[in-house]
Amino acid sequence: MNLKLKKMANNQLDIKFPKGGILIIVLAVVAIILFSKSTVTINSGQAGVLYKTFGGGVVTDEPPLGEGFQVVAPWNKIFIYEVRQQEIYEKMQVLSSNGLEIQLEASVWFQPQSDKIGSLHQEKGENYISRVIQPTVRSAARSVVGRYTPEQLYSSKRDVIQTEIFEETKKILDRQYIQLNDILVRDVTLPTTIKTAIERKLKQEQESLEYEFRLVTAKKEAEKQIIEAQGKADANRILSASLTEKILQDKGIEATIELSKSSNSKVVVIGSGKTGMPIILGNQ
């Protein structure tokens, strides 16, 4: 039995790898490693910044690598950036013009300038949002809000401060290879006591405006009645001045003739009145 086992061991020792087999395996492993290090897939809405280890570092004078499958030298690197619009939400504590603390909530829409990603990576780095965008937005918000009172922020100036924060932020980010698309002020929160006082004041102002409106309306209605009464008085005065005794007699005659035609008129006495006007008797 021992001889049989010894013979089997000797046969196993006689097995040899094919000529060059080890070399092929080593080359295959190296090829797989190099391939994995030399390829990268860039997804939709992304772009790649090429870093040449032996060629000057970050490439800034060429367009960034686009979407899809990319092959690079294994000793180089690719840094991938999101180039479509992104959003960050900012909640800040700022001071109004009279020193009261205001809470401001805003959304910032932005994206890197697609042709300047190399420079953005070289100068600002992958953390450019926290290094550049957030400090800039907060600084602009403090500067703008500090120009207004709480009453203005609460009522009529929200759209104005939104526009001013956007303009001040954009001036800075344009020089930092970042495209600012918009800033939306979502909420402005005042201290409870200040908010209550402002609401009470606005209510009183509204009531005062309503009372003034009623006074103006009543005054106009009175003026209208005075004008109508004056018109009637002037008309009566003009009419009275134009009615002479002769005209009245003629009108009386005309009226008597019309009355005499009525079936209810029975007796007409001519010249019986004080002025000689006819008198009609027997009205049934």
Automatic annotation (TrEMBL):
<dbReference type="GO" id="GO:0008233">
    <property type="term" value="F:peptidase activity"/>
</dbReference>
<keyword id="KW-0378">Hydrolase</keyword>
<keyword id="KW-0645">Protease</keyword>
<feature type="domain" description="Band 7">
    <location>
        <begin position="37"/>
        <end position="202"/>
    </location>
</feature>
<dbReference type="GO" id="GO:0006508">
    <property type="term" value="P:proteolysis"/>
</dbReference>
<dbReference type="Pfam" id="PF01145">
    <property type="entry name" value="Band_7"/>
</dbReference>
<keyword id="KW-1133">Transmembrane helix</keyword>
<protein>
    <submittedName>
        <fullName>Membrane protease subunit stomatin/prohibitin-like protein</fullName>
    </submittedName>
</protein>
<feature type="transmembrane region" description="Helical">
    <location>
        <begin position="20"/>
        <end position="36"/>
    </location>
</feature>
<keyword id="KW-0812">Transmembrane</keyword>
<keyword id="KW-0472">Membrane</keyword>
<dbReference type="GO" id="GO:0016020">
    <property type="term" value="C:membrane"/>
</dbReference>
<dbReference type="InterPro" id="IPR000163">
    <property type="entry name" value="Prohibitin"/>
</dbReference>
<dbReference type="InterPro" id="IPR001107">
    <property type="entry name" value="Band_7"/>
</dbReference>
<dbReference type="InterPro" id="IPR036013">
    <property type="entry name" value="Band_7/SPFH_dom_sf"/>
</dbReference>
